[in-house]
Design brief:
heterodimer; A: 253 residues; mainly alpha; 11 helices; 0% strand; B: alpha+beta; Ubiquitin-like (UB roll); 3-stranded antiparallel beta sheet; 3 strands; 15% helix; 18% strand
Chain lengths: 253, 114
């Protein structure tokens, strides 16, 4: 990965978030707790994979090195991925999957909503299409977090455990770097830190309704969106996701 | 950077075969209106904890190929249905009352197809 053009870098971050979370959610296909949730999760996964095609497709165009969305998705190894650490965390139980989804959706919708006003028309168009899908994702995941958090003793315990486990991965979404500064400067994307306040408000309200306690420690793992240090889970996930292209390079159908 | 719970689907247990779970969600019948101007049509049923969730589940299960513009969800237990055993008493008396169909009128040719 060149790593030189901040716009390419930014587009990979958007695309890789959608790709990695989309693949994670697709791992539930056929094994979700009930049929209705199984189909709903598959729909969310498909939405995210669709968004991946748009983001990584544009990234490939911006890069101008002949790589399309498929090449970027299947021919890069773990150190080239630019997704935040939150989305590569394992599914755990259903509650943990939905907590991860909620914590990401709340950021994702705010990010896409801001991108609709991007000075880059192509980015604005992708954001507008994606925001409609993600509005529904957030509605669904927050309802589930509230339902399970404020549910039985066991569902509450599992949701609190999921929140405690995943909260240290929230901070990374709001930590800016040179790429973010360049994007904000050009009016292409918002400064990540500027979205923290409304995020905390929204997440706080939902967690309160879910009778869950937000961890006090705001320690944040980082290194996913810069590619500096992914968690060990992403490499394992890619061996599944990319095995066909690894075994039969450039196979098509 | 290890996660304390890295095994897949830990703690997610399948319900034992053949036993109805005591916490089974109620059944909802789903009606979808395909286009403006048409009536809602029964498309199937699903399980959901409440009405709002039934609508959301219906959106995912029955409208993912762009089938609808409106969804109704009705809890199945709230539907009053006729009993199949009463079929005779309910419907047979109509069989020999052909005069209830307006088929005995001579329609002038000028009217065309009706």
């Amino acid at each position: 990965m060149s790593g030189t053009d901040p716009k390419f870098e930014f587009l990979c971050r958007m695309g890789d978030n959608a790709l990695v979370l989309g693949h994670r959610v697709s791992e539930w296909c056929g094994v979700a707790p009930v049929l209705e949730e199984d189909i709903a999760l598959a729909n969310v996964a498909l939405d995210l994979i669709g968004q991946t095609q748009l983001w990584l497709g544009l990234a490939g165009e911006v890069e101008g090195a002949g790589r399309d969305a498929d090449k970027l998705a299947f021919h890069r190894d773990v150190w080239d991925f630019r997704n935040v650490l939150l989305v590569e965390q394992p599914n755990g139980d259903f509650g943990q999957t939905m907590m991860r989804q909620f914590l990401f959706d709340a950021w994702h919708l705010a990010q896409l909503t801001a991108l609709i006003d991007s000075t880059d028309k192509e980015i604005a168009a992708i954001a507008e299409k994606s925001a409609k899908e993600v509005t529904y994702h957030l509605e669904r995941s927050s309802d589930t977090v509230i339902g399970l958090g404020d549910g039985t003793e066991e569902s509450h315990r599992r949701m609190q455990a999921a929140l405690d486990l995943l909260w240290p991965y929230v901070g990374e979404m709001f930590i800016g770097d040179d790429v973010d500064a360049a994007m904000a400067e050009a009016g292409i994307a918002p400064d990540p830190a500027s979205m923290r306040k409304s995020y905390d408000q929204l997440v706080g309200d939902t967690l309160a309704a879910a009778t869950l306690t937000k961890p006090e420690d705001d320690f944040a793992h980082r290194g996913g969106k810069t590619g500096a240090r992914h968690s060990e889970h992403l490499g394992h996930m890619l061996t599944q996701m990319q095995w066909l292209q690894r075994a039969y390079p450039d196979a098509t159908w | 950077m290890s996660s304390p719970e890295s095994s897949e689907y830990k703690g997610t247990e399948a319900a034992p075969h053949g036993e109805a779970r005591p916490t089974e969600w109620p059944l909802w019948e789903i009606f979808i209106r395909g286009q403006h101007g048409l009536s809602h049509r029964h498309v199937g049923s699903l399980h959901a904890a409440d009405a709002e969730m039934a609508i959301k589940n219906a959106r995912d299960v029955y409208t993912r190929r762009n089938e609808g513009v409106s969804i109704w969800a009705v809890e199945a237990s709230a539907i009053a249905a006729s009993s199949p055993e009463e079929k005779g008493a309910l419907y047979e008396p109509a069989n020999d009352k052909v005069y209830r169909h307006p088929t005995f009128y001579d329609i002038p040719d000028e009217v065309g197809a009706m």
